[in-house]
Amino acid sequence: MDEVTRRAMLAATAAGGVLTLASAADAQSAAPPPQPLRPGYGGTDPGPRNLERDRQNPDLLVPPPTDHGTLPNLRFSFSDAHMREETGGWTRQVTVRELGISKDLAGVNMRLNAGGIRELHWHKAAEWAYMLYGTARITAIDAQGHNFVDDVGVGDLWYFPPGVPHSIQGLNPDGCEFLLVFDDGDFDEDNTFLLSDWFKHTPNEVLSKNFGVPGSSFAHLPDPSELYIFAAPVPGPLESDKIAGATPVSSGFSHKMLAQQPIRTKSGSVRITDTSVFAVSKTISAALVEVLPGGLRELHWHPNNNEWQYYIEGQARMGVFAASGQARTFDFQAGDVGYVPFAMGHYIENTGSMPLRFLEVFKSSYYADVSLNQWLALTPPELVSAHLRLDVQAMAALRKEKFPIVPV
Predict the structure, then answer these.
(1) Residue 158 near residue 136, CB atoms below 8 Å
(2) Which of 22, 87, 199, 286 has the fewest CB neighbours in a 10 Å radius?
(3) Phi and psi for 33 in degrees, rounded to 5?
(4) Where in the chain is the domain with CATH 2.60.120.10?
(5) Which helix (H) or strand (E) is 270 found in, with range?
(6) Rounded distance between C-alpha atoms, residue 141 and residue 238, angstroms
(7) Is 127 a catalytic residue?
(8) Backbone phi, then psi, for 267, in 5-degree steps?
């Protein structure tokens, strides 16, 4: 089966690539069911089967002939995660329980309605966040009693170190949605240190002594189940939430990633955020990658840690090389999580008709990658030729400069 046939198992598009969402869905449902076969191999699948899943994952149904071995699953979708619905919004998570190979990082996708509050709380793990939609107000203090409050919008980040108490609240007009990444794959969003939970499980006389007020002041504490993510009035302007006389934190907990100057090629861009530009984020670094249709996040690997991915929009396929003849290919859509174990070679290709945008996230203070193309270009040509027997044209095309998104 040639590449055109394999790619045809993606969502159908009209001639010229212009279809409404409705007509695209109709065309897909009318298309012949994709089959797990290529010339001389495989056979039809009479069912039962999930056709929508098969069409979304053509490289699982018909793996490229270059795939080999038994690499573990490196993909999980937030659409398959349990949804926890509360009065102020919802949350769902992908941890080591859902994506077993991801032992160092876990992700949470959260929605807060306008006014909705993620209760004052703290974690044992560090919290890194990327704003996906809307606007939010975040608050925190550090161990020195320095105060922090800020409003964040799409493309902004925040980072709260372990043990730093904080809150998040959705603002007008429609609240917010964001991705959280924690530097512990066993993290569980349901097992955080909640303000109301601590009050409810502390004797009244201890609360009275600690705060210097009568015990009756604590007679109407809410049950912790009432809060967590709860509805509240939308706060006023940012200035109204700044505490008079408070000393601000010396290094801010938020960062505007989209304001960074990207590394750009004609086929896409990369914005890298680590401690060199966001000093407080000491355990998590990230890159926001955009790949235009037909473009490729070049063949590369990361020499410092595993890679945890979140796909924001578009369609992609990722091929991962694990040494010893092991290789596997996965397909991704918006809302999916991907994972590449430490030092494994890989690429990510835009297989759709729209821009592909995704996050590469690492449990590391710094971002690093090694380009296959650059490595070969900076190695003596005779040595490269002795290994790969490349022709003159291929040798001349090797690039000494790194191009993270391959120009097309």
Answers:
(1) no
(2) 22
(3) -60, 135
(4) 81-255, 258-406
(5) strand 268-273
(6) 16
(7) no
(8) -110, 10
Which residues, at least 6 apart from 208, have a Cβ–Cβ distance to it below 8 Å?
Answer: 214, 215, 217, 218
Given a cut of 60, whether residue 18 has pLDDT beyond it is: no
Alpha helices in 147-242 (DSSP H): 195-200, 204-211
With beta carbons less than 8 A apart as the criterion, state whether 36 and 62 touch.
yes
Residue 216 phi, psi (nearest 5): -65, -20
DSSP states along 222-255: PPGGG-SEE--PPP--GGGGSPTTPPBPSS-SEE
Task: Report percent pLDDT > 70 for the chain.
Answer: 93
How far is it, in rounded angstroms, from Cα 348 to Cα 62?
Answer: 18
Q: How far apart are CA 293 and CA 276, in angstroms?
A: 31
d(CA 180, CA 127): 6
Q: pLDDT by residue (tens digit) across 253-266?
A: 999 999 999 999 99
Query: Out of 177, 313, 360, 382, which one is annotated catalytic?
Result: 360
Please, which residues bridge with residue 329 across strands? 319
Q: What is the DSSP letter of 276?
A: T
- The fold of the 258-406 domain, in CATH, is Jelly Rolls (2.60.120)
Instruction: Answer yes or no: is pLDDT of 12 > 50.
Output: no
**Cβ(177)–Cβ(335) under 8 Å?**
no
Q: Any idea what the Cα angle at residue 255 is, between residues 253 and 258, rounded to 5°?
A: 165
C-alpha to C-alpha distance for 178 and 112, rounded to whole angstroms: 9
SS3 content of the chain, % helix, strand, coil (to 5): 20, 35, 45
